[in-house]
Amino acid sequence: MMLAASFAMPLIAALGVVLDGLLGEPRRWHPLVGFGRLAQRVELMLYRPSRLRGAIAVALLVGGFALTTFLVHRSLSSWGWLLESALLYLAIGATSLGQHAAAVRRALDIGDLDAARQNVGRMVSRDTANLDETAVARAAVESVLENGCDAVFGALFWFFVAGAPGVVAYRLANTLDAMWGYKNPRYLHFGWAAARLDDLFNWIPARLTALTYLLLGKSGAAWRCWQSQAPTWESPNAGPVMAAGAGALTVRLGGPAVYHGRLESRPPLGEGQEPVAADIARATTLVRRGVALWLVSGFLGSWAIA
């Protein structure tokens, strides 16, 4: 009985991953879409260029839903695993990430640059209208590597650490960061709490993601890039993830990119060749193999504890 209980978390995690693989992202009535609309209403009620008001908004939304999840899960008793697996499925975006990446790769493979630009525009926030083939491939690879942490490994980490409430809090903090975590006049102060909370939630998962890429790719290159290039990146979490991922794939990422009409000079990442369409599939495979590694590690850890 104790042995079965010790394997509960990795089994539920595996079920959530399987559900994501079978069902993909819900096309209608996605809870995160509804949460985004609720966050917009909270913003309308509380908005001021104030860190305090932004922190209150984040606490109400993230804390409120995490507490509700804890109470509902507790009330379900022996059936709580159903809620856990469903919430993890909704939080993980591995299948959706792979589908978006595959659409970009297919368009590049047949030489349809316009379609490739449109498809990669659904993955990144940079301007994509004038990207050449190399820049499109670079943007897609970067998105797969970074979202491997944000949409996959981060959710798995917080599920293993804190169960359903943990994965809910993580995913909602990530969503609020995407909505409010901008350094522009409107959100510089109000969005500060969302950005910092997301940084805190992702600090350990980002480094575990970088380690995952290192173990499953070109380890020496991943380590060199992680150590030398990650500190040059503005984001404390994206830097290790993307530097290690670029090194693991031996491709060159980073460099100039246009965001909202403004050219930003980003530090270089990785080493080796410029990315091509095939490297998008290699990045997706790296993330998928990483998920398998995490699940196996979860089972082995549970077995060792038991």
3D architecture notes:
The protein has 306 residues and is mostly helical. It contains 13 helices and four strands. It has helices at residues 2-6, 8-23, 31-46, 51-76, 80-91, 94-109, 113-121, 133-180, 187-190, 192-216, 219-229, 238-249, 277-305; strands at residues 252-254, 257-259, 262-264, 268-270. Strand 2 and strand 3 form a beta hairpin. Helix 2 (8-23) packs across helix 5 (80-91), helix 6 (94-109) runs antiparallel to helix 8 (133-180) and helix 10 runs antiparallel to helix 11. It is globular, with a radius of gyration of 19 Å.
Write out key terms for the chains shown:
about 300 residues; mainly alpha; two-stranded antiparallel sheet; 13 helices; 4 strands; globular
Number of helices: 13
Most strands sheet: 2 strands, antiparallel
Radius of gyration: 19 Å
Number of strands: 4
C-alpha end-to-end distance:
11 Å
Residue windows where pLDDT falls under 50 for at least 5 positions = none
Shape: globular
Mean pLDDT: 93
* Helix-strand string: HHHHHHHHHHHHEEEEH
What structural class do helix, strand and pairing data support? mainly alpha
The amount of beta strand, in percent, is: under 5%
Q: How many domains make up the 3D coordinates?
A: 1
| Spatial sequence of strands, sheet with the most strands | 1-4
Helix content: over 70%
